[in-house]
Predict the structure of DNA-binding transcriptional LysR family regulator.
Amino acid sequence: MELRQLSYFVAVCEELSFSRAATRCFISQSAISHQIARLEHDLGVQLFERSTRSVVPTDATTRLLPLAKQMLSLESAIRAAVRASGPRIRLAANMSFATRSLSAIAGAREAHPGAEIEFVIKPFRQRIAAVADGDCDLALIRGSVDQPGLSVEKLWVEDLVVATSTAHPLAGRDDVTLATLGDYPLLLPPEQEQVLLHNVVRKAYADLPTRPSFGPPIPPDHTATMELINRPDAWTILYADSHTEGIATLRLAGRPLRVPVSAVLRSEARRSPILETLLAALHSS
């Protein structure tokens, strides 16, 4: 039994889907299925009842899950406890924050030449857990989080863009309105996977007499841009730094769609000069 297998096991338990768990863990679906099968073999029990439509945890899974989470939490605590005592900061984010983060890290290192600042790639839930466990000093997220022991510091506001296929009837317009877009299907991931984007859409349409016409949810193993290519009548919302061949971005008339980007930190942690410099650089970036 390996810690990575327990990590994959927890992901499948929380997602109730091997494909979504694989996406979350940045591995292939076949690889995560293989590791879960190895874990089942090592433990001598079946952990999930699998079918083409569902993944159902067994009684053994219910007993194992809290222990697996405890083991993973201990791993993070061990890494934090033995971390080098020199000046070191660990920033958890995903690749969409890479450009601004690396620029801020470069500025912080210039101000503190002896500092070691790591940029750690983690999915959303693992970013939050890493800060809570002390394995990372801060995490970048879109939106906010309400969790005891954590504080949230707003860094900047990020624009969202309306995107369509270049074959969409509206693709050639200078700007579009939400009311006009309501005549076409909106493609988004399921709400449980992208609560923030769904909340942005609800807020944008709150004062309008029309509502968006939702198309089928984007599957976990598909991308929004590829769905637009396959559905040239549809539209979606992307982060502003997303650029793909065959995709048109449209200027939205009226109030733009925006989301806050925040830093998540431990509430009681002492902020070192390096951390304060990094936060200031992220603010100004």
